[in-house]
Amino acid sequence: MLQTRPFALSIAGFDPSGGAGLLADIKTFESHQVYGLGILTANTIQTEDSVESIRWEERNYVLQQLEVLLKRYQPRVIKVGIVQSGEELLQYLQVIKQYVPRAFIVWDPVLSSSSHFEFTKALSTSTLHAILHQIDLITPNYLEIDQLIPNTNTPQEKAQSLRSSCAVLLKGGHRTESQAMDQLYLPEKTHSFYPQCIYPTTKHGTGCVLSSAIASHIALNYSLDQAVLKAKKYVEQLLASNSTLLAYHV
Length: 250
Known about the structure:
The structure is a single chain. By secondary structure, the chain is α/β, with parallel strands linked by helices. The protein has helices spanning about 20-30, 60-70, 85-100, 125-130, 140-150, 155-160, 205-220, 225-240; strands at about 5-15, 35-45, 50-55, 75-80, 105, 135-140, 165-170, 180-185, 190-195. It has a 9-stranded mixed β-sheet with strand order 3-2-1-4-5-6-7-8-9, with helices on both faces. Strand 1, helix 1 and strand 2 form a beta-alpha-beta unit. Helix 2 runs parallel beside helix 3 (about 85-100), helix 3 packs parallel to helix 4 (about 125-130) and helix 7 packs across helix 8. The radius of gyration is 17 Å and the shape is globular.
């Protein structure tokens, strides 16, 4: 008897290099034996180390795609990448809650590229909290959480302030101490995840892959802390896959 795979949906931008965004999410889903569905929020002109321009998809077109897909499929997990604004994301979440209210929602808040190309418009405090109350996990790195909450608190303090709204995975790639140690903030507990090895090279799109790998393991019925642990190991395999900025999904 053929095995039925769970569905996972990525709502993200198109990176033609394949290292990040929708293509990276689908590669990650499929490598974990999860069937990947995808909706495009934006089309970019870029390589793995430079973003030249972005063209956003019309909001109503994305909403129509969401409705058609979610009427037909029941994804266990939905991963969100770049969106043009917080208000737009709230509309997407409204449709998601209407059709698949039990879906686990992961938001990887890619606000700008590593080459400093700006994606998402600045979010107000009220919009940010409205989003967080409708998702299950947010996965910012140090730079992203500072953009989301522009005050003088430390990234750890900012993550702690959000944990009552949803789980927070604070990625440690920009840590000056305990390099690459990630922290998962749950309402009553914090989990720390240390790397098995510190690699001298990096990869384009590791944040996208980490969040979609977490989504994959949630779709496969792992607990959140187990999903993060397994996803972190998967990203480390990609870091070791070759010496370029583009990872091999092996």
